């Protein structure tokens, strides 16, 4: 299948993101707020177990929340 055939075949089904543009601010704010809470809990009790239970989810929530807030503000990455 050539690239032109693939291009024509996919033109009938446009891309629809999993999280719509209207909901990006809410999702981004929720993720950043949960990252703030998890970071505070991680700072209160530092142990090896809290790295897995608070540290990793906090860093993932901050990373994805920052990208969603950037996209919600209109700056596309």
TrEMBL record:
Subcellular locations according to the entry: Membrane
Segments traversing the membrane: 25-44, 51-76
Main localization, broad class: membrane
GO cellular component, one term: oligosaccharyltransferase complex
InterPro entries: TMEM258/Ost5
Subunit and interaction comment: Component of the oligosaccharyltransferase (OST) complex.
Family: Belongs to the OST5 family.
Physiological role: Subunit of the oligosaccharyl transferase (OST) complex that catalyzes the initial transfer of a defined glycan (Glc(3)Man(9)GlcNAc(2) in eukaryotes) from the lipid carrier dolichol-pyrophosphate to an asparagine residue within an Asn-X-Ser/Thr consensus motif in nascent polypeptide chains, the first step in protein N-glycosylation. N-glycosylation occurs cotranslationally and the complex associates with the Sec61 complex at the channel-forming translocon complex that mediates protein translocation across the endoplasmic reticulum (ER). All subunits are required for a maximal enzyme activity.
Name used for this protein in its record: Dolichyl-diphosphooligosaccharide-protein glycosyltransferase subunit OST5
Natural source organism: Aspergillus nanangensis
